[in-house]
Amino acid sequence: MSSTPKRRVKAKLDPSSSSRSSLHSLGALEPPSSFFPSREELLKLVAVLAIASAVAVSCNFFAGVVNPQTKPFCNSDAESAEFSPSDSCEPCPRHGECHQGELECVRGYRQQGRSCVEDGDINETAKQLSEWVETRLCEEYAQLLCGGAGTAWVLETNILNDLDGQLHMKDFGGDSSLFMYTKIRAMETIVKLLETRANPAGMKEYRCPDSLAEYYKPYSCRIRQWVLEHALLLVPICALLMGFMVFIRRIRKKQYLSHRVEELYHQVCDILEENALSKGDNGESWVVATRLRDHLLLPKERKDPLLWKKVEELVQEDSRVDRYPKLVKGEQKVVWEWQVEGSLTSSRVKKKSQSGKSKSPRERDANSLHHELRSEPRVLLL
């Protein structure tokens, strides 16, 4: 019996369905959308990294400032191979000595950081010592210039001994090198300040300069020397001033004398006229000139005969007054008498006296008191 073989029928695949299945399988292999960071998360990450970097740089900077890694100093001795000048060491600073990379400042300087600066205490002590020597030498020389007892030149050994005495009062902590260095610094300043010479024995001597000694002279000495230096100019100036003062005084005295003479003259005329009209206390119309003078002049004015002489000259020139000698109480006196006849003021005074008689006794007393006050002599003040 024959058998017929069966053929398998191959199913035809749809290309579209195969492509969909492959895409589905690839989509199953892709990571989820939450696997990658978002934009906001990336910005936060960058900010964190920037802050961390800044903190690291700052810490490194402050660590270098607080604990710097300094280079050792190069040796001052050039023969030493170790720590010779190179990029691995720092040159030795000025006023310092370096050995094995360490710095040591010379005398008079102290270490400040990685440099040497002057020691302020030593400089101040040296300055005080130099000023003390300057004051002592300049005062003695100024006293000598003013005519007193003093010295001009001083030996260097004496100055050094004086400095030793002053330095012993300072506290150097037993450091003899510091003691000597301070003394040397003081002498350096003194040499620059004072004048120096060598005496015949070859020893150094010092003297205060003349320009500096002027400031140490007393004011009385300065004034006296200035007057002597300018005497040729001061003498004529003083003479002119004194002459001018005398001239001004004479002018003022002349003006005072003129005003006082006129005042006394008017008082004399008033007294003579009133006495002539009232016939005086004794019924006489004349007045003794000397008594009138003593009545009008002040005690100090009586010592100046010129004042009353000028008054007499004016009275003598006045035609209303007669001057003639008269025997008064057995003594020859010169009397003055007012001529009532023809006087222009007699009628006015007469009316005034008549009106005074018609007044009450109280009013007459008041008028007489006023008249006495007016008749008192007055001094013209300048």
From TrEMBL:
> What InterPro entries does this protein map onto?
Heh2/Src1, Man1/Src1-like_C, MAN1_winged_helix_dom
- Molecular function GO labels: chromatin binding
What's the domain of life for this entry?
Eukaryota
Q: Where in the cell is it found?
A: Nucleus inner membrane
Query: Man1/Src1-like C-terminal domain location, by residue?
Result: 79-338
Primary gene name = LOC116205482
List, alphabetically, the PANTHER family matched. INNER NUCLEAR MEMBRANE PROTEIN HEH2-RELATED (PTHR47808), LEM DOMAIN-CONTAINING PROTEIN 2 (PTHR47808:SF2)
Q: Where is the composition biased (Low complexity)?
A: 16-25
Single Gene Ontology BP annotation:
nuclear membrane organization
User: What protein name is recorded for this chain?
Assistant: Uncharacterized protein LOC116205482
Which is an annotated Pfam family here?
MSC
The record lists the membrane-crossing segments as 42-66, 226-248
Entry GO CC: endoplasmic reticulum; nuclear inner membrane; nuclear periphery
Ranges of compositional bias, category Basic and acidic residues: 360-382
